[in-house]
Design brief:
There is one protein chain. The protein is of the alpha+beta class. The protein contains six helices and four strands, in the order H-H-E-H-H-E-E-E-H-H. The protein has a four-stranded mixed sheet, covered by helices on one side.
Length: 169
């Protein structure tokens, strides 16, 4: 399939020839590997992608910590967003919704008190996922207690090993 695509695209692509004016390279297997130096750097695009990565990773961090399914679309509140954050969020809204699995983000007014929510930072902006209707507090406390108990057991095992002279030797 890749070779078939190459045969259709290569005649249209600059650099798909071994030399200027030469015939198109017969097979993708014979084509030279692209060199990074052949592409222009775009600092603005790199900055945008860095911002998008921080945003999406923040939402995914909340999902992981709160054990929320990736399939569930989350409501999201944005707090302390700069003008640049607002502009980027609006410009890339469709990408954010798709990659982070969120509903249309809502902006908290400056000084407004957020509802109980899980939080993550994306630069100076705070990403908040309201917990109302999303997590059962009783079940969440039970889950955290279970994790704390397991961690306590692991600490006790490690301390027992470290207290054993044979293990230390």
């Amino acid at each position: 399939i890749t070779e078939e695509i190459w045969q259709r695209v290569a005649p249209l692509v600059r650099g798909a020839r071994s030399a200027p004016g030469a015939p198109a390279i017969a097979s993708i297997m014979l084509a030279p590997w692209p060199k990074a130096a052949g592409f222009r750097s775009d600092a603005a695009a790199e900055a945008d992608m860095g911002w998008l990565k921080k945003f999406v990773l923040g939402v995914r961090q909340i999902r992981g910590e709160m054990d929320i399914s990736p399939a569930r679309r989350l409501p999201l509140l944005l707090q302390d967003a700069s003008a640049a954050d607002r502009e980027l969020a609006q410009r890339h809204q469709a990408l954010l919704m798709r990659l982070a699995g969120i509903e249309v983000p809502q902006w908290l007014a400056p000084g407004a008190k957020p509802p109980p929510a899980a939080a993550a930072m994306a630069g100076a902006m705070t990403l908040l996922v309201p917990m109302a209707g999303l997590i059962d507090p009783v079940a969440e406390l039970a889950r955290l207690a279970k994790n704390a108990r397991k961690t306590g057991e692991e600490i006790a095992r490690a301390q027992a090993k470290l207290g054993n002279d044979n293990f230390i030797r």
